[in-house]
Amino acid sequence: MDIKEFKDFSLEDYQKLIKNREISVKELAQLFLQRIENVDPYLHAFLFVNRESILDEAQSLDEQLEKANPEEIPPLFGIPIAIKDNICTQNIPTTCASKILEGFIPPYDATVVSRLKAQGALILGKTNMDEFAMGSSTENSAFGPTRNPFDLNRVPGGSSGGSSACVSALEAPVSLGSDTGGSIRQPAAFCGVVGLRPTYGRVSRFGLVSFASSLDQIGPITRTVKDCVTIFEVISGKDEKDSTCAPYPAFQAQEIPSREEVKKLKVGLPREYFSEGVDSEIIESIQNTIDFLEKEGIKLVEVSLPHTVYALEAYYIVAPSEASSNLARYDGVLYGFRAQEAAELQEMYFKTRTQGFGKEVKRRIILGTYSLSSGYYDEFYLKGMKVRTLVRQDFEKAFEVCDLLLTPVSPCLPFLFGERTQDPYQMYLADVFTIPSAMAGIPALSINCGYARSLPVGLQIIGRPFQEGLLFGLGLLIEEGLALGAPFPEIPLRKENTYE
Amino acid sequence: MDPKINLEEIKKVAQLAKLSFKEEELQTFFEDINNIVSHFAKLEELDLENVSPTSHISWSTPPTNPDQPVQWPDYQKILERAPRVSGNYVIVPKIVDK
Amino acid sequence: MSEQTEAFVTIGLEIHCQLLTKSKLFCQCATDYIGKEPNTLICPVCTGLPGSLPVLNAEALKLTIKTALALNCDILPQAVFYRKNYFYPDLPKGYQISQYDLPVGKDGFMEFSFQGKRKRVNIKRVHLEEDAGKLIHEGPDLPSSTSGVDFNRCGIPLVEIVTEPDLSSPEEAREFLNLLRRLVRYIGVSDGNMEEGSLRCDANVSVSLTGQSLGTKVEVKNMNSFRSVYKALKFEVERQREMLLNHQTIEQETRHWDEAKQVTVSARGKEEAEDYRYFPDPDLLPITIDSQLVEEIKNTLSELPLERKERLMVEYELTEGEAEVLTQEKEIADFFEECVKLMPKPQLICNWIVTEVRKNLNMMNQSIDKSKITPQKFVELLKLVEKKEITANIGKEILEEMFKSGLTAKEIIAKKGISMISSEKELEKIVFEVIEKNPQSVADYLSGKEKALHYLIGQVMRATRGQADPEMVKNILVKKLSGED
Which family does it belong to (chain A) (predicted)? Predict the structure, then answer.
């Protein structure tokens, strides 16, 4: 079986094959394991492939299927899913791409993982990322970067680079990522796939290794909007283990408005997101989509989100502050890496943390520690929180005149390795359009809207809290209207591109 | 705000965060941090006097636990993961700062 | 020379009490860690495993509100949790979840009388936080040059009570601490056991010779019993006073009480680097404390010990000392009042509780509500004594037996065949025998030595194995000896 046959398959299509016994669960798992074997040496999207146990589990699902009524099998029955390596998986390593958690095997599943498993999904493996999700290119992984399937010399975006690249290259049908300031949407855009950052609190964070707790959200990365809906239905909803999780039921596809209703929506174009700093070909690609929407009769209005530029600065105060505290637990005492040959406690602390964390993580820990330290709290952290209020108010005002916002995901196309690593601030700028909505806690969907210089361009739809249904509605309309299809980048299997 | 952080402050903060730096790497690290922090000066343009801070995104009353003990079944697994254990204690190098 | 020089002392206390919840503050691990194997009451949350998140135990918040109300605090409309960041092996997350500028309660006070004067200590704040684990530095399990960590205690809820520096002597501080302990036990929020660490106390001490300005604040820690709090404060006050008299400067610092050497020693070094970087815990949304909840809790707060003590004095005409003893524990006071309802003899009941009941409770190391004595059983016994069916001494023996077996007084009497030797005839016979056997004492008595009578009474009591009523014995003896018969 050639994997390319599955290019435009949705999860529902896989389900049909399984239900009709056209493919066994084990065969499906093997298909993806084979694909990983073929292309992952070039992409390095995975940090761990669940080779052995997935086949055993697949076998047991096949046995269940023998006895079960095929109509009653759960929606993800037999579907292999890739999980970002900062989401805890029982008995499967979870490292956050950090040396400090190398070999750490959680004794429990994240809520999202147990929900996926409860619907019959299989864990295919753990995906590469920027260490502790800090970065926008996956170059900060302690275990080597992931490459963009569209151009192996370019980054896949980050921090969910592995989760995006593997779905783009069809190493996995779907994956989970996490988004703190854009870590789902930006790599999804760079790899030409769909990524959802849900409303803050819509998906449980229990089992997601915290980077910045007030910003982190888990979301699906998929090949189509439809699959995104399927996964979101499973992972969303209240969880008593996470007190920041909103006590509302899971999302249901019925919340998505009909096509006719979607056409009645008013879509806002925030002028700050179409400024000079944006790659002109990205603007062009977005403009095509706008033209399409106008043709469909959708009303477009220009709006302003005046605090957009300040959101970035505030984010790089708030997120590192929370991170500096969240990452204090990696001290070598109870789990993970402990530096050897420390004669006394302080030495163990310093050696463990200095050897265990990578450069960007250290940079943010220092930045955050500084922002919170006595004498600087008011100048930094408090200011960051105040700007966050202004950013939220921007969106509230905008949503008085429109229902959704449409923007580019990133001001730039996937960049070359090393292009932005010299100047950390340049790297931070890659998140300028994804950070404000994250700061406001509102949902945003990233979908592919075309190609520029043979690289994918991402479009972002931002909505009011808990209105993921509207995002999906507009996303489905655009996806169908543009008819780009799911990606299948030809990965040139040249030897010099082999990842060492 | 004077966005520049001096080297001494960086060293002090590194102490708080239990991170150490070699002298040669400290300089570039220091420059990177200062470069980032210098952009924070942009926030000076805003009048934040009467703005209330947003520390959490909260849509409703958070859930709470009942006061009912529930034994976590896998507590042994936590010790299994510890770098060093003796007689059910997690072992750390001797503490000399107290 | 220094003995006479007066010093102005200000002391503020910071008290931590473990709250009496069944499960921990942010997870559902059990809190009964005493005597448990190390690291058996743990889970991913209280050990801060990656990905774990805290969820508040609502009961702990209620107990904190109750404490704050009992200390006359204002209750803030929102409970906001902060992180206190520092590294220590007993703190697995690298921060402690605590409260900061928005505690559960603030601006309260406690009033009491001390050395005949009314004293008011202002309470700065009452807040909720989690406990740390326990470190051991020696033991058979420890390899050399290491310390061991036990996380069983980690995450148990603590209420922290901070007073203003309103206490003006170690004696006053001791009294306050005693009363506070009584209060938390009385309202059922903590068992206040200092020896087991469920109540801990730090102090700020400053001494000034002029009293015109406050002296330099010195923090004293590591006091593990009521006695050591008092001794440490005594020592510290004297140390500072001596220094001032010698024109030495007192440094603002933290000192530890060294129990073995009975001195406070400087804990220098650690303090300088401390910068806790408090900030709102982003994992815990602020919780609204609505006024309805506060009202509900207020209604569960029965009369506080000081109020009750004063009421008992007025209502039952007890002395301050008696009322004090009765209200040291809520259960004792409740027991007393239950008994009075069944038998309106408050003084008799009080006397027995203050002496005999407490003696038995101490002996059995029990609290009254956990003991086998009920007000009904106790009153039944007292009625027997009152009706002189048994003597007080026999009553005491029976009470002890009741504590042990749980039987009623009548059951014990029946079982043991005890009865009051109340028939005069029977007693007269014994008196006669005693007179026969002790001619010398009789002679002494007749020659005017009162003491000899006591000796003879004692002999009769001995012969009746204490079952006779001493008053009756005396009357018969006197009658017989004076030949009235």
Answer: Belongs to the amidase family. GatA subfamily.
Closest CA to C324 of C142, C178, C467: C178
Element (H, E) at A303: strand A299-303
C323 and C194, same domain (yes or no):
no
Q: Binning pLDDT at 50, 70 and 90, where does residue C391 land?
A: confident
* Total length of chain B: 98
DSSP-assigned letters across all residues of A32-45? HHHHHHHHHHHH--
Residue C3: inside a domain: no
- CA–CA gap between residue A26 and residue A10 (Å, rounded): 18
Burial C224-263 (b: 16+ CB within 10 A, else e): bebebbbbbbbbbbebbbeebeeeeebeeebbbbeeeeee
Does residue A159 have a cis bond before it (omega within 30 degrees)? yes
* Integer-rounded Cα radius of gyration of chain A: 21
Contact indicator for C239, C206 with CB cutoff of 8 Å: no
Name which residue leads in pLDDT, C4 or C341.
Answer: C341
Structure tokens that stand for A171 in this block: 């190493």
- Domain contains C333: yes
Express each pLDDT in A451-491 by its tens digit.
Answer: 999 999 999 999 999 999 999 999 999 999 999 999 999 98
DSSP A365: H
Residues C354, C208 within the same domain: no
Q: Are A457 and A448 in contact (CB under 8 A)?
A: yes
* C-alpha dist (Å) from residue C288 to B62, C104, C282, C294: 10, 11, 16, 11
Q: Which residues contact C408 (CB under 8 A, 6 or more apart)?
A: C377, C380, C381, C402
Q: Last residue of some domain: C248, C266, C295?
A: C295
Residue C1 belongs to a domain: no
Residues of C in contact with B97 (CB under 8 A): 269-270
Residue C105 sits in the same domain as residue C236: yes
DSSP string over A430-461: TTTTTHHHHHHT--EEEEEEEEETTEEEEEEE
Q: Are residues C85 and C221 in the same domain?
A: yes
Q: Which entry of A10, A114, A141, A159 is annotated as an active-site residue?
A: A159
Q: What does the alpha-carbon distance between residue C169 and residue A32 come to, in Å, rounded to a whole number?
A: 77
Q: Is residue C86 domain-resident?
A: yes
Provide the domain limits for residue C443.
424-481
Point out the domain boundary residue: C237, C268, C295: C295
Catalytic, A84? Answer yes
* Binary contact (C51, A106; C-beta < 8 A): yes
Contact between residue A367 and residue B33 where contact means Cβ atoms under 8 Å apart:
yes
Q: What is the pLDDT of residues B27-85, one digit of tens each?
A: 888 899 999 999 999 999 999 999 999 999 999 899 999 999 999 988 899 999 999 99
Chains within contact range of chain A (3+ C-beta pairs < 8 Å): B, C
| Distance of alpha carbon A336 from alpha carbon A99, whole angstroms | 9
A183 is catalytic: yes
Q: Are C325 and C280 in the same domain?
A: no
Nearest Cβ partner for C277 among A205, A242, A373: A373
